[in-house]
Design goal:
Layout lengths: L4 E5 L8 H15 L2 E8 L1 H11 L10 H7 L3 H11 L3 E7 L2 H11 L4 E6 L4 H7 L2 H8 L4 E5 L6
Parallel strand pairs: 1-2, 1-4, 2-3, 4-5
Helix pairs in contact: 1-4, 5-7
Length: 154
């Protein structure tokens, strides 16, 4: 199976691991000359919470999700890393329920591989809070590389 397109799904919590996520993607993308799609999905509530900080006046119905994604952390850092590495990339945004929108994005860009990050959580936390990463992995239309924080649980 050829790998032409890699979807790196990120959210604001990935800011702390942006470098490691980029390294993981570059290990695959560079030797295969694959295109990287930096995907950032967000909910209406998230947009309402951050639209002033991003400099948007538009209501959620009128916003371009790609523009919002381009201004959210850690997208700018990732763009810089991929540009410095000479890897083709694009930024995509999606508005709605995050896990399903990321899966939809993977289908839309015909991703051959996805990379998602997550943090270590106890089984009880997963049961109560759910896991966006877990839903993405279970519904993904292609293989998924999961990058997990290696911090020790307390």
């Amino acid at each position: 199976m050829a790998i032409d397109t890699i979807l790196l799904a990120v959210g604001p919590m990935d800011t702390v691991r942006a470098g490691e996520l980029a390294d993981t993607v570059l290990e695959i993308a560079e030797p295969l000359d694959a295109t990287v799609v930096i995907g950032h999905a967000f909910t209406e509530d998230e947009y309402e919470d951050i639209h002033d900080d991003l400099g948007f006046d538009a209501r959620v119905e009128d916003v371009d999700p790609d523009e919002v994604a381009a201004r959210r952390a850690p997208v700018g850092d990732l763009e810089e890393i991929f540009a410095d590495a000479g890897v083709d990339y694009e930024v995509r945004g999606a508005l709605g329920e995050v896990s399903s929108k990321v899966v939809d994005m993977a289908i839309e860009v015909d991703a051959d591989r996805m990379v998602v990050g997550g943090r270590r959580r106890s089984p009880a936390e997963k049961a109560v809070l759910g896991s966006v990463s877990q839903e993405i992995i279970l519904q993904a239309p292609c293989p998924v590389t999961y990058f997990r924080d290696l911090d020790v649980m307390e």
